[in-house]
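Inputs:
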Amino acid sequence: MLLDIKNIDVLYDDFQVIWDVSINVNKAEMVALLGPNGSGKSTILNTISNLVEHRKGTINFENNLISNIPTFKRTELGISHVLERRRVFPHLTVRQNLLLGAWHPRAKVELSNSLEKIYKIFPKLEIRSEQLAKTMSGGEQQMLAIARGMMGLPKLLMIDEPFLGLSPMVMKDLIQIFKNIVKEGISILFVEQNVRLALSMADRGYVLESGRLVIDGKSEDLIDNEKVTKVFLGN
Amino acid sequence: MTSEIILQAVVTGLMMGLIYALIAAGLSLIFGLMEIVNFAHGEHLMLSMFSSFWLWSLFGLDPLFSIPITILLLAFCGILTHYFLIRYILKAKMLIQICATFGLSIFIRSIAQLLWTPDFRNVDKPLLEGRIEVGSVFIGQPQLYASLVCLLAFIGLYLFVTKTETGLALQATAQDRHAAEVLGIPSNKMFAIGWAIGLGCVGVAGGMMANYFFIFTDVGINFALFAFVAVALGGFGSIIGCLYAGIIIGLVESLGGLLIDPSFKLLYVFVIYLLVVIYKPQGLFGRY
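Outputs:
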């Protein structure tokens, strides 16, 4: 098991937002975190990168406890986190953004290889490599954010709302790219609100409601599940 | 009023402006990185001048040679400031942050007065002395070299921030701290580096000014004020903006003093500042 989260609680000051959530991700698996607005999906990703601390429970990565490892050291372990709303560095060029993605020594050694590979997957980034990131369209910025995450040579790529604001065309490309990434043995854990879309591509899904895990399972079992529909449509 | 006198004022203003620019760049770097205004910037400048003074007075080291030591001392002071004060207030409310660095300024100034008394000192017979005459313009040697060294330091700073890997990481941290952190860039380390460089800039400026300026515990106040104006004028977070703003301030100060009345020098600078705040609040090169 690549990532194993057991029974975590997360509190913002005194306000509890995650109750007793357990999630796991296997190698080369695509897992979707589903749930309506404010159900705690992003918080879980942020907890995995330790941007938010958890109170109870454990987080294991490749069978090592990582609960107390600071955020900046987790990339080196193999966890890349693509934050919500892209968060590219607006005043840096595309190339500079990508270079910063390969920060730890292991990634730096592979820098030129990774860059070549990234440019093959996202040809537009090579064309625009000297352009400031803020001048690109939303879809291109999303590509850049994902590419930047991959520069760190992750074993687990976490992506927060990858499809937010993308056109159907770009979305289709991105889905294919995700599938190729998983084929290479990298796991993807992503947050999505569109259940049908997410389950059509993911191997498994977890459904959250108000910070609690409601149901989880294989995508084909969840897709027409009544419980899932209830979470999103209410009773 | 002859053109020679105006030219003289322009040269003087330009030289002062380059020093203001470097001091402001240090302030801007720190602010851009963690959105904390270093209200003790003037006191740090005072410390750097005293460092230069004491190295001269105790060890006979000319300010010209002691400048690397002064820069290192100030950089170290920056790291200490971050480690013992700033990192505790990073997430605090703005008012607390203001009080913290403002309190630091009072603390440093008081300690300095206690240790060194409020007397005015100066470095006697530094290596850089006298003036040269270019055409009809007189240029003080210490002033000239101070401004040139500050310009060089400024260019060095700019190249460091825009061309080196650490510089890129600093920019990334300034633009989006959490996004940088999840890429593996430790923001706490970047903040410490930012403080070291920010105060290192002040070390350069103070060390060079020790050659010709009176050194006393309140010496930094006016410079810090000008640095705040320069940062606002140039645009928050823009280093290159500091260069233009510093030069504008130097020119306004010296030309205003010459053409209108020297006793209102500060006024002219702050009029410019007010105009910018009213008509272009993001500053000349600002991003915000």
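Remarks. Chain B has eleven helices and two strands. The interface with chain A takes residues 165, 168-169, 171-172, 175-176, 178-187, 287 of chain B (CB under 8 Å).
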